[in-house]
């Protein structure tokens, strides 16, 4: 009897170990390399099995493609490397505001990304992955090679897109879902502009949807990411009377010549002239200009956020980390993390039509009681950490919030894939 019990115990322990290895994609001693107990590779001509849905209470399992450096960090100038990851340079042409791709990659390279603070963990066994991350810096590629749109260097940007698509199409993991479980950052409105329709089934990380047709991108499958703020975060905003210290009612500093909905900026510039407590200044994002914007936002109660070339702009996130209540004038804006954050608790919204009614917006702001403004100011201080991109990543910061949003897209992706496998005719309804 004792011998049988011992044998049963050994069989049970081996079964538990095999199940753990298959689920996490890790071997012994915390390794994430392939192990003897990895899931078997499917036979040809059969759809490979999808991993189980994301487990409740555990991090998202992410397999990151090992791409040549020319697709990502090779576009960055040499610098002090952290985990083979060069520091993001402070260079205006590289536009750190669209550097989401960099921070997502960095989070997966973080050596301690298995701690409880991380929403995503890198696995080296693709069979164990919930999603697949494609570390192609498409925004940086546009800013580096295609920023002038007609420059001959644009060909480099296009060729990188051609090459990455070739790599993906050869991957059996891309083939099994047509890329639906792949995560591809496209934060700049012109990122991946030549071939983005070829990856439209994937989970895209975007700033907004202005330059995407509805057939390509939507809130149902994609994730809206915050810009990387340009001004420094207001770390010591601990005044006992911030309402009186912020003497400017409404502040705006930035470009006024914009496209699409952004044309409202020129109209607002004329409309808001003559108010002593309103600062509206046309400027460019130079080092001196950024310093002026930092001081202006920190000394203002409300910060104006009109649409730019697209419905979103970095100004919103500069205002948030400055604890200056955003006044959003953009009829088609989508906001990051809105499934978790109620922006009406720390922002104000005006339609373009209402904002252009002479005197309406300024008078509305003046009527807001000090007590109500203080509540919004306090809420801004509570949620600012959600908009911080940083390395190493911290609990509930911007990149971890993004991975949590990606995790929320996985059940919908599974539904589409599994349903399509059993349909005998295309979507019949």
TrEMBL record:
<keyword id="KW-0328">Glycosyltransferase</keyword>
<keyword id="KW-0735">Signal-anchor</keyword>
<keyword id="KW-0812">Transmembrane</keyword>
<feature type="domain" description="Exostosin GT47">
    <location>
        <begin position="58"/>
        <end position="360"/>
    </location>
</feature>
<dbReference type="InterPro" id="IPR040911">
    <property type="entry name" value="Exostosin_GT47"/>
</dbReference>
<keyword id="KW-0808">Transferase</keyword>
<dbReference type="GO" id="GO:0000139">
    <property type="term" value="C:Golgi membrane"/>
</dbReference>
<dbReference type="GO" id="GO:0102983">
    <property type="term" value="F:xylogalacturonan beta-1,3-xylosyltransferase activity"/>
</dbReference>
<dbReference type="Pfam" id="PF03016">
    <property type="entry name" value="Exostosin_GT47"/>
</dbReference>
<comment type="similarity">
    <text>Belongs to the glycosyltransferase 47 family.</text>
</comment>
<keyword id="KW-0333">Golgi apparatus</keyword>
<dbReference type="InterPro" id="IPR004263">
    <property type="entry name" value="Exostosin"/>
</dbReference>
<protein>
    <submittedName>
        <fullName>Putative exostosin-like protein</fullName>
        <ecNumber>2.4.2.41</ecNumber>
    </submittedName>
</protein>
């Amino acid at each position: 009897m004792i011998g049988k019990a011992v044998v049963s115990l050994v069989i049970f322990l081996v079964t538990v170990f095999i199940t753990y290895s298959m689920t996490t994609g890790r071997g012994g001693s915390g390794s994430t390399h392939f192990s003897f107990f990895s899931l078997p590779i499917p036979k040809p001509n059969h759809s490979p099995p999808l991993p189980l849905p994301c487990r409740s209470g555990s991090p998202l399992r992410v397999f990151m493609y090992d791409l040549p450096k020319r697709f990502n960090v090779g576009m960055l100038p040499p610098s002090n490397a952290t985990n083979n990851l060069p520091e993001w340079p402070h260079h205006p042409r590289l536009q750190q505001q669209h550097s989401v791709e960099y921070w997502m990659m960095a989070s997966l390279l973080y050596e301690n990304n298995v701690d409880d603070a991380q929403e995503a963990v890198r696995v080296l066994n693709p069979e164990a992955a919930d999603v697949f991350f494609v570390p192609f810096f498409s925004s940086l590629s546009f800013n580096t090679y295609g920023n002038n749109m007609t420059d001959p260097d644009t060909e480099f940007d296009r060729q990188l897109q051609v090459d990455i698509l070739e790599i993906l199409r050869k991957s059996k993991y891309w083939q099994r879902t047509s890329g639906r479980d792949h995560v591809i950052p496209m934060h700049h409105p012109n990122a991946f502009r030549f071939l983005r329709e070829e990856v439209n089934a994937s989970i895209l990380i975007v700033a907004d949807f202005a330059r995407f047709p509805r057939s390509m991108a939507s809130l149902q499958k994609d994730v809206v990411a915050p810009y990387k703020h340009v001004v420094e975060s207001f770390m010591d905003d601990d005044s006992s009377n911030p309402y009186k210290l912020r003497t400017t009612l409404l502040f705006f500093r930035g470009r006024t010549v914009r496209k699409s909905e952004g044309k409202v900026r020129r109209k607002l510039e004329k409309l808001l002239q003559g108010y002593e407590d309103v600062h509206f200044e046309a400027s460019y994002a130079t080092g001196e200009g950024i310093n002026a914007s930092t001081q202006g936002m920190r000394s203002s109660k409300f910060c104006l956020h009109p649409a730019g070339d697209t419905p979103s702009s970095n100004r919103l996130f500069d205002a948030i980390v400055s604890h200056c209540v955003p006044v959003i004038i953009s009829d088609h804006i989508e906001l990051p993390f809105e499934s978790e954050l109620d922006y009406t608790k720390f922002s104000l919204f005006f339609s373009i039509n209402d904002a252009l009614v002479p005197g309406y917006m300024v008078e509305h702001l003046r009527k807001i009681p000090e007590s109500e403004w203080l509540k919004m100011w306090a809420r801004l201080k509570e949620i600012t950490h959600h908009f911080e991109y940083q390395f190493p990543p911290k609990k509930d910061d911007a990149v971890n919030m993004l991975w949590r949003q990606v995790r929320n897209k996985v059940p919908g992706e599974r539904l589409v894939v599994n349903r399509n496998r059993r349909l005998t005719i295309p979507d019949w309804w």
